C-alpha cells in the first residue's frame, strides 16, 4: 500500500542528501582541483547507498547486507563531516582565495577524525554517578544500579557486542539492572533472539527490567518483546512495582510519547510522594509532568548526546539542556545517558558508548 508519509519523508531525505552531495562535490573539486562527472556519480552512489542498505536491511540479514550497511553507514559519518568542512572551506576561500590550499588539510583532518570515531565507538566505558534520593530507605543506601540504553542491535551490532556488554555488567555486579529502550535498531531481519542471547547472563538480586524505545516501534514489536522476555528481562509497560520501599515505574514508549498520554499513564499509577521513585522513560521529555506526579528520579536515553561532535549542542537545544548527564528540574532529578551503541554512523566523536553505574545515597 502506498504510504504518503513515508514517501514524503524519503523525498525530503533524498533532497537533503542531494544538497549535501553538491556542497561536498564543490568543496572537493576546489580543494583537489578535480572536476569530474565520475566524482559526482561516486559521491551520489555512496551517499544514497545508506538509504538502499537501510531498506535492504529491513528484509535481509547476511554477510552482504551487514557489510553493505556498515560501509554505507561509515560513509554517511564521513560525509557528514565532509559537508561541514566544505561549508567551512567555502568561508575560508571567500575570505582569501590564497588560502585555498588549506582545503586538502581540512579534508585530511576530516578523514582522521572519522577513523578515530569508528575506533572509539567500540570502547565501552562505565559512567559512574552518585544519586541522592530524598527519603531513601536504609536498605537502598550504597546499592548499585546499571542503566543500559540505545544499543541498537541490528545490522551492525550483534551477539559479539551483546557478549561484551554482558561481561562488562557482570564485572560491576549491580544490585539491579535497567535496560532503557532502543535495544534493537528496528529491523527484525536478524534473528534478534540469537543477537541478544548473551544478555541472558545479566542478573541482579533485585532483577533486570526493560522498557521500550522508539526503535522498538519501527519493526516487529512482538518479536522484540518476546526476545527480551526470553533473555530473562521483565518488561515494565506502564506499571509501578515496589522494591524494598522504593517505587520503580517503567513506561512504554508508544503510550507516553505524547504529553497527554504520559500524563494519563502516571495519573493511573498512584505514585506515593512519601517514598522515593525511579521512572524509566526512554526520552528525556515532559519533565514537568513527571515532576507534577512526584517522581524523584527519571532515567532516560534516546539522545546519544548527539553521538558526533558538534551535534551534542543540537541535542542539548532540542531536549532543553537535558540531553546528557545528571540534571535537576524543580523537584525531580534526571539522568540521560549517551547510550551503549550507535545509530547510523558507527562513530562517536566527543561522546562515549557507555554503561551507567548509579550508586544511591
Describe the structure.
The chain is of the alpha/beta class and 361 residues long. Helices cover 44% and strands 16% of the residues. It has eleven helices and twelve strands. Strands 1-12-2-3-4-5 form a six-stranded mixed β-sheet, covered by helices on one side. Strands 6-7-8-9-11-10 form a six-stranded mixed β-sheet. Strand 3, helix 6 (192-196) and strand 4 form a beta-alpha-beta unit. It starts with a helix and ends with a strand. The model has no long low-confidence stretch (mean pLDDT 95).
Task: List its salient traits.
6-stranded mixed β-sheet; 44% helix
Tell me the layout of helices and strands.
Blueprint: H1 4-32, H2 37-57, H3 63-95, H4 102-121, E1 124-131, E2 144-148, H5 159-172, E3 176-179, H6 192-196, E4 208-210, H7 221-230, E5 234-235, E6 239-243, E7 246-250, H8 253-256, H9 259-268, E8 277-280, H10 287-292, E9 297-300, H11 311-318, E10 325-329, E11 332-336, E12 353-360
Parallel strand pairs: 1-12, 2-3, 3-4, 4-5, 7-8, 8-9, 9-11
Antiparallel strand pairs: 2-12, 6-7, 10-11
Brief rundown of the structure:
It contains eleven helices and twelve strands. The protein has 361 residues and is of the alpha/beta class.
Quickly give the structural class.
Answer: alpha/beta
Taking the alpha carbons of the first and last residues, their distance comes to: 54 Å
Mean of residue pLDDT values = 95
SSE arrangement, N to C: HHHHEEHEHEHEEEHHEHEHEEE
Side-by-side strand order of the widest sheet: 1-12-2-3-4-5
> How many β-strand runs?
12
Low-pLDDT stretches are none
Radius of gyration: 22 Å
- Percent range for β-strand residues: 15-25%
> Tell me about the biggest sheet?
6 strands, mixed
Q: Helix segment count? A: 11
| Helix proportion range | 40-55%
Spatial shape:
globular
